[in-house]
Amino acid sequence: MGNIIDGKSIAAGVVLHICNETRSFSERTGLRPGLAVCIVGDNPASAVYVRAKEKRALEAGFTSRVIRKADCTQAELLEQIDALNEDSEIHGILVQLPLPAGFSERAVIERIAPHKDVDGFHTENSGKLSCGIDDGFVPCTPLGCLHLLRRHHASLGAKIEGKNALIIGRSNIVGKPMASLLLGENATVTIAHSRTRDLADICRASEIVVAAVGRAGYVKGDWIGEGAVVIDVGINRTAAGRLVGDVEFSGAVIRASGITPVPGGVGPMTIAMLLWNTLLSAHRSCSLAEPDLLLDC
Ligand code: GUN
């Protein structure tokens, strides 16, 4: 179908661009961008995500360090972060979430040096994003969604500016940073959440819909307006073991001008943007001009 936004192939293009920029960075500096990922506990989904991040980082020519702790205290994790903050080979630090019960995720995130916080979750980076200051880090999933939206609009000869954009979900990881990014594009932004009334009507009036609720099929196909662009951030497993998004795909795809599938939509973009943020951090650490995230890469 011509209106499918193929995140998998777009992410592959971004990763190729990152590989080329990494080669040029390494030739100029003799260094490799370095990414450290900490994983605590035994969450099986987290283990899968971390292996994927490690594999992609190595493929891009990065140094990848994965610190696996089956069981540790918060104080030990904070000490580990302190060591990575001081480590000149490491430009990006990510602590995989969720952390086990009893950890304060906020305290752990705040311990990461903001200039190595490639997840963009530190309050210094979220503050910069909401103030429109562009020398911080933008969280990877919303950054990937923005790239898909920019590309899709460019391919139609259309603009994001002035569009009615609806974001369903108000998390710190996706909903709130996505709202800041779309405001930065001069869209008119609505954030909906579990207490929102008349969501179906708001959705029907929206030209851009970003669904980040974490509930299979929460957004019904007939809520999508004719020609709207739908970015489905959800990754939900059905009872039968199938991966599905937050949007009822079959009903939405016949109305939308563009829609991301699950899997193969937003997911691959998230890792690509993690590599991108790490590459930016490596450039900043050497006071080199930052590369551009080209729309046609
Ligand atoms: N767990 C699920 N998504 C993410 C993410 O983007 N970053 C981190 N650190 N943990 C996650």
Describe the structure.
There is one protein chain. The chain is built from ten helices and ten strands. The protein is an alpha/beta fold and 297 residues long. It has two domains: 28-113, Leucine Dehydrogenase, chain A, domain 1 (Rossmann fold, 3-Layer(aba) Sandwich), CATH 3.40.50; 140-267, 3-Layer(aba) Sandwich (Rossmann fold). The strands form three sheets. The protein has a five-stranded parallel sheet with strand order 5-4-6-7-10. Strand 4 (164-168), helix 7 (175-184) and strand 5 form a beta-alpha-beta unit. Helix 1 packs parallel to helix 10 (266-285) and helix 6 crosses helix 10 (266-285). The two termini are 22 Å apart. The model has no long low-confidence stretch (mean pLDDT 97). The structure holds guanine.
Overall CATH class of the largest domain: Alpha Beta
What general outline do the C-alpha atoms trace?
A: globular
Q: Give the count of helical stretches.
A: 10
The CATH homologous superfamily name of the largest domain equals NAD(P)-binding Rossmann-like Domain
Give, in order, the helices and strands.
HEHEHEHHHEHEHEEEEHEH
Query: Helical content, roughly?
Result: 40-55%
Average pLDDT value? 97
